[in-house]
Each structure stands twice: as structure tokens, then as C-alpha cells.
Amino acid sequence: MEPLLFFFKGIAAGFVVAIPVGPVAMMCIRRTLSANILSGYVTGLGAAVADTLYAIVAAYGISFIADILFTNDFWFRLIGGIVLCVIAARMLSAAPAENSAQDTGKLFGDFVSALVITGTNPITLIAFGVIFTSIGVATAGDRYEWAEALIAGVFVGSAAWWAMLSGLAAICRRWIGELSLIWITRISAFVILASGVLILIAAIAPDSSIGSLIALPETESKN
Asked: Which of 16, 173, 194 is nearest to 88 (CA)?
């Protein structure tokens, strides 16, 4: 009975962490509109896998991995910011409509791009730590079956959110013309570009107002 409870709490945690609208959400919506629902959902699955990896660290309390993440925060932010800027540049230079055929290579690229962007954001680890404590599952690492159920639930919850988001975008697609798609692409690209630039500024100038705003608690405590 207890593993089942941890599983359902994991679903709630995964869903809540995935909900905030950010660069990956914009990518998911845009790819669903310009290509197909599978492209959008595979993008979301990349983020779901990254969320699950962070949930593993949070559930088991793997301190040495957490230390690696926080110690190398500069490099994680640098890589994530560069990836976001590259994706935004490609979106602005690409044609408004993409081939809707299911290209395995493209789908893999969609998956990896979201995995890298989400995986290079250590704040996700903090989010899971806070949520796990709030919903009373901070002790999941005490027993393997509890931790496994919690982690599985996180993946299901996160994947469910991305299924909903890509599904809603696919439903709206029939009412969106080419001109609207062009503007959605441009807006999405600028949001992603702005996110990338802010992350790069935070990495290069951690003592700036932007760096302080999105700094990790550990980083703040050392300054």
C-alpha cells in the first residue's frame, strides 16, 4: 500500500514540476504546431526523463551527484544557455512549416534538445527537494521500493503533463493559419532566446542582479 501512495505522490510532484511554462514548453507547442503531435510530445519526454533523473538524486539523497551539479553550476548554465540560443536562432531562420513526416533522426534531436535544456538546470533538483519535503516523501530513500515507486510516479506525472500540452496544441492546430504559425514561431524563438541570454548572463556574471535573481541557494550562501 505504501509504495502505491509514493507512486501517486510522485505523479503529483512530476506534474507540478513540469507545469511552469518555459523554453521547453514553447518548443513543445511550436513543434506540435509546425510538425506534428509526436514531435511535440517527444520534446516533452526529453524533459520528463531529465526531471526523473533529478528526482532520483532528490529521492535517494545522492549527495556526491548533487555536489557535482552545484559545483559545476557555471558549466551547466553555460551549456544550457548556448543550447537555447542555438535553438532560437534555428527557429528564426527556419521555414515556418516543417515536414510532418515522422523522421526518426529529427525526433531524436527533439528529445535530446529538451533533455539537455532541462538537465542543465540544477534548480530542478531544488524544486523536487522542496516538493518531496512538502508532500511527506522526503524519506523515500530509506526503502528501495518507496524510492522506485516515487521515481516512477514522477516520470508518469511529467509525461502526462507533456501529453496534455502537446494534445492541446494539436487540437488548436486546425485553427491556426500559416501567418499565425509564423508569429507563434517568432514569439517562441524570442522567449527561448531571452531565456538563453539570461542564463548566460547568470553564468558569466553571477554577482549581477540577474545572476542573483536566479542563483542557486548554495551559490548565494558562498558569496
From this structure: 194
Contact 173, 35 (CB under 8 A): no
Number of domains into which the chain is organized: 1
Across the range 60-88, mean pLDDT stands at 79
Above 70 in pLDDT, residue 13?
Answer: yes
For the chain, the straight-line distance linking the first and the last C-alpha, in angstroms and rounded, comes to 45
Amino acid at the residue 70? F
What integer pLDDT is reported at residue 45 of this predicted model?
Answer: 96
Q: Do 41 and 163 form a contact (C-beta atoms < 8 A)?
A: yes
Q: Which three cell numbers stand for residue 13?
A: 510532484
Binned at pLDDT 50, 70 and 90, residue 211 comes out as: low
Region for residue 46 given its phi and psi (left: phi exceeds 0; alpha: psi -120 to 50; beta: otherwise): alpha
Q: What is the pLDDT of residues 31-52, one digit of tens each?
A: 898 888 999 999 999 999 999 9
C-alpha cell belonging to residue 162: 507533456
Separation between Cα atoms, residue 48 and residue 163, nearest integer Å: 11
Residue type, 173: R
The boundaries of the domain holding residue 208 are: 2-222
Enter the C-alpha cell of residue 213: 535573481
In 141-182, the DSSP E strands lie at none
Assigned C-alpha cell, 168 = 492541446
* Contacts for 96 with CB less than 8 Å, ≥ 6 apart: 34, 178, 181, 182, 185
Cβ neighbors of 167 (< 8 A, separation 6 or more) are 37
